[in-house]
Specification:
- The chain is an alpha/beta fold.
- Helix content is 43%, strand content 18%.
- The chain is built from twelve helices and twelve strands.
- The chain has a six-stranded parallel β-sheet with strand order 9-8-10-11-7-12, sandwiched between helices. Strands 1-2-4-3 form a four-stranded antiparallel β-sheet.
- A hairpin with a 4-residue loop joins strand 5 and strand 6.
- Helix 7 packs across helix 8.
- It is globular, with a radius of gyration of 22 Å.
- It starts with a strand and ends with a helix.
Length: 329
Amino acid sequence: MSRSGNGGSQALQLEFDDNSLLPMLFGEHDRHLARIEQRLGVRLASRGNRVTIDGPHSASEAARGALNWLYERLRRGQAVDMGDVDAAMRLASPPDRADARDLFGDEDLVVRTRKRRVNPRTQGQIEYLRALHRNELVFGIGPAGTGKTYLAVAMAVQMLAEGKVDRIVLSRPAVEAGERLGFLPGDMREKIDPYLRPLYDALYDMMPGDQVIRRMASGEIEIAPLAFMRGRTLANAFVILDEAQNTTPMQMKMFLTRLGENSRMAVTGDLTQVDLPAGARSGLAEAIEVLAGVEGVGMVRFGAADVVRHALVGRIVEAYDARDAGRRG
């Protein structure tokens, strides 16, 4: 890589070894390069196996890091789409710039399942995956679209495939404000399925459909409302509680004390979307306070910068956060 320029601008030149990967790196009609130019405010010019980056120092370094990250992904046999381009720019931008080779070389940051290989797309996801590897109990707290549940399910599927756990247990509060299921039509399975659909979706994204069905039939994968956890001890299992902001303190304590020998537990939720009755205390909020600093417990907070859905979702989260901060002020 060579550099030239003065003041706040500089030109960087990248050279890639494998020309066959460049069409996928650049995207159809160079759409990936155009996205980087638009988002980072740089100019990219490709010629042969070289790319010249021209722009402000910080933006040029971010573009360089993003292209290196994408190229490393392709070199390891993984596809690149527009979501990966956005992820590369997030990971390569200040304040927490990450080196592509460090990320791909860290086995704690790679989740392998039958259908896909999952890498973190934000700094918050990097911290979260490391916490899931290193702690028996992990809280993932933050807005929708940050991958809290998705990554936890991916980790659970990997550990099941590797034989590190015997089963996966996925749970949610079945009804936002108290799990009152009786008024819903259908049998118990039909009553709870709509509330647990996001967990099913994540499972089918990680495993072939026939395998999901077979493992659910055998009990290796269990999906149940939180009310069904009382009185159980969950050993040799990866247990996930989703939408945990809608638990009461008593429900949360009950759930956390289900943890058995050789088990892992992930608790995810968004404290800005509590649907409990007015004045009721969230069990997730209490647990975060009570368990802060306890050995074996990891806590990762996600923010708007960690949203990996449509870019507008991140801006929506930021707007609501600003509104709430103004009210507190």
